[in-house]
Amino acid sequence: MSLKKGSEIELLIESAAFKGKGVARHDGIAVFVPGTAPGDKVRAVIVKRKKKYREARLLEILEPSPDRIKPRCSHASTCGGCTWQHLPYSAQLKIKEDQVRDHIQRIAHLDPAIVQPIIGCEDEFYYRNKMEYSFGTRKWLSREEIEKDEYVDDSGLFAGLHAPGRFDKILNLNECHLQIPASYQILDTLRNYCLQNDIPAFDTINNTGYMRHLMIRNSHYSGELMVNLVTFSDKPDLVDKISNHLVTQFPQITTVVNNVNDQPNPTAVGRIEHVLFGPGTITDTIGGYTFKINPNAFFQTNTKQAETLYSVARDFADLNPTELLYDLYCGVGTLTLFMSSYAQKVVGIELVDVAVENARENANTNGVQNTEFILGDMKQTFKPDLHSKYGHPDCILTDPPRSGMHPDVVKELINLKVPRMVYVSCNPSTMARDLKELNEIYEIEKVQPVDMFPQTYHIEAVAKLVLR
């Protein structure tokens, strides 16, 4: 059988691949099937044909895996936000640890034995401190709705998350278990208020309407709660009424902000920002350091587990009070400040100007005087001139974006030959790619997976490198 597009086939799912897809094999060809679990026997249809593999859509589970469980959320099979809710958390952790080992062996060409047992998250649900919901005029219909005999209207006002791969259709959420329960409750209240008061959702096709996004941020330690209403136009009277309604219904809300994004781009960052209630910010704590969080500022999404991740990085760095540390891709300085008490000085480098401003403010707020933050593109800033100005580092901490480090940065790290390096990654595959190059002069002693996002396929990892 050639497994052409449209072919239906029975498969036994043997393992799991990155992004949460189950993997089966047919005549030596790998077939990736989302929504499945190792051990599932399924019926699927081929939807994409590539030279070395196929992608398929699940049609039916013929025999469930012994590990399969009923997801907590009714949207789990459709949403795309939670990839692994149909597996117990222990099985999720094993899959993630195995994936890190696979990347280290297959991409970095290193001994997979250097990968340590994964550190799981204490909270399997309700761990996120930020959720961004979207409003829209087109509803994503479930398979059950499509197969109904009667007509199902998919137009109107809907609020939830974008359907996977669709910018124009909204999965109208009835529940969500990733952030504190108040998060979904606020979404539901706002959706009902808009429906009752004829407040239209933003139409991404025609660029009309009003409500675009609802962003909710909560502080793990202080309990502060921010509501950010993202609208397409600036209507103070209308948004004030919405704000007053939400604050009345949810007294735990400590601040409400209105971001006005009147541009075609889909972001929640507004060209105009109004504070409607409270201070316009919330505060949270990591490792004893307090951070002020603006509506659109970056902050670790899982506050509690970020402390675990940072503790691993601290232990791998093995600093002493006389040493100089460089923190590459430092963001708003959360990890920089966390490491500051263990070194003589920490120099943070970051591309985003607002993040650098926030980092400097965070250092001042916490009375930290041995940090310095530099604004610049890493591949242009991380050069010999920088080392001449600030000194040759004893240790380097790098926490790059999902794409990993630019080849020029990797080359400079090889040339610099620092005694120790710690690589923090949100994408073990690109980390493995970089480790393959760095292995030229650094011994990669350990790789520690840390699960920051239960129920999803995302996995963080920290690598310890020592100069050969």
Alpha-carbon distance between the two ends: 51 Å
Query: How many strands, what sense, and barrel or not for the largest sheet?
Result: 7 strands, mixed
In the predicted model, the low-confidence regions spanning at least 5 consecutive residues are none
- Radius of gyration using CA atoms only: 24 Å
State the shape: globular
Percent range of helical residues: 25-40%
Count of helix runs? 12
Please give the CATH class of the largest domain: Alpha Beta
Strand fraction equals: 25-35%
- Look at the structure and name the CATH superfamily of the largest domain: Vaccinia Virus protein VP39
Q: What number of domains?
A: 3
Count every beta strand, where a strand is a DSSP E run of 2 or more residues.
22
Spatially, the strands of the biggest sheet line up as: 9-8-7-10-11-12-13
CATH fold group of the largest domain:
Rossmann fold
User: Roughly what is the average pLDDT, rounded to an integer?
Assistant: 93
**In CATH terms, what is the architecture of the largest domain?**
3-Layer(aba) Sandwich
Helix-strand category: alpha/beta
Keywords:
single chain; 468 residues; alpha/beta; Rossmann fold; OB fold (Dihydrolipoamide Acetyltransferase, E2P); 3 domains; seven-stranded mixed sheet; 22 strands; 30% strand
